[in-house]
Every structure is written in C-alpha cells, then in structure tokens.
Model the fold of this input.
Amino acid sequence: MFNNSKYSTWYFQIVESARGRTADPLLHEKHHILPKSMGGNLAASNLVALTFREHFICHWLLTKMCDNPKHRQKMHYAFWRVSVKRNYMSSVGYAAARSRIREIQSGMKRSPESVAKMKESLRRKFAEDPDYRQRVASSTKSAMARSDVKAKITGPKSDAHKKALSEAARKRPAMIWVINTSTSETTKIQATKAIPDGWVRGRSLSTEVSGIV
Done:
C-alpha cells in the first residue's frame, strides 16, 4: 500500500514517536495512521495525536508514499484540505498544491451515473440546507462583483456563444418561486414538480407571484 521510499520512513518515524502521547486539543490534532479513504478505521491503534506541524508534514509525506494513482489522488486532496482550510500553507506550497489538484481534476472522467448522482446530491443539499444556500448566494454575489466576471457577462459574445446560450435556455426547465409559510424562506423549484407541504407559490406570503419565472 505504501512504498519503501524515504518518505514512508520519515512518516512512520513521526507516527511512532507520537504513539502514547496524551492529546491536548490546544496543541494536537488526531491523525489516522492509515487514512480512512484507504481503509483505515477509528480504532485507537490507528489514531495518533500529532502537533499541527507534524500533522501538516505527515499529510505531505502521504502524497509521496502511494504508488497507486487512486490512493495518491486521495492523499493530494487530503493534503489540500488539511493545509489550505486550516491556513497551514505558504504561498509557494499553495501554488504547488493547487496546480496538482487541477492536474488531477483535468484528467478525471466521470460516468453519466456519477454526474447524475453529484447533481442530485447538490440539489438535495441546496433544498434542505439554508446555510449552504446562503454560502452559495454570497459566493455568487462576490464573483459577480469582480470586474473580469462582469466583462465576460456583459462583453461582446460570438455567434457561437449566443447560439450555445440560446440552446441552454431552451433546455432549462421552467422554475417557479415558492415560500415557506413558517419561516418565510424562499426558493425556486421546477414548475412541473409538486409544491412541498408547508410551502406556497410566490415570493411573499402577502402576494403570490403568478406565472412561471
């Protein structure tokens, strides 16, 4: 599973030195010796308390220890999450990790079933998680405020681009606004689908919007 490189040696030296260490939430993070994505479990024998620096280094080492392409890909994603989301990475490290992630993504080929499953998961999350909807709205608003994005949207479009937009619009399902009668939360659903219990058509409880938007 792991190769016999110097990276594997360094990794297990760090792990073994930390075995039996009493975890302090202010100083340590739990680390799966055999990553969960590679079959690791939550048993105490597979967990070790590492310092923040050790944790960062171990996840970097794991990207060098796997010869199996799928395992190596998973380790790159894990390293990305640990380093970027927790602000452990320098600008140079960020650039290297981001480039590697893009290389992985550009070479990925998903089956139609996988794409459909991802779309359904996102649709369900968007419908059921108000915080997620708020984050998406905020992110979209920030992106739309960028000058380069505005230029792409409002700038001149080729005939091929216009045709592609027109065809996409024709294929897009008609949507209607609905509002929750208890929370006044609003969202859009496909016009052909039944309105869920507790929701009514419209964008406000005082005035329902008629027609498809």
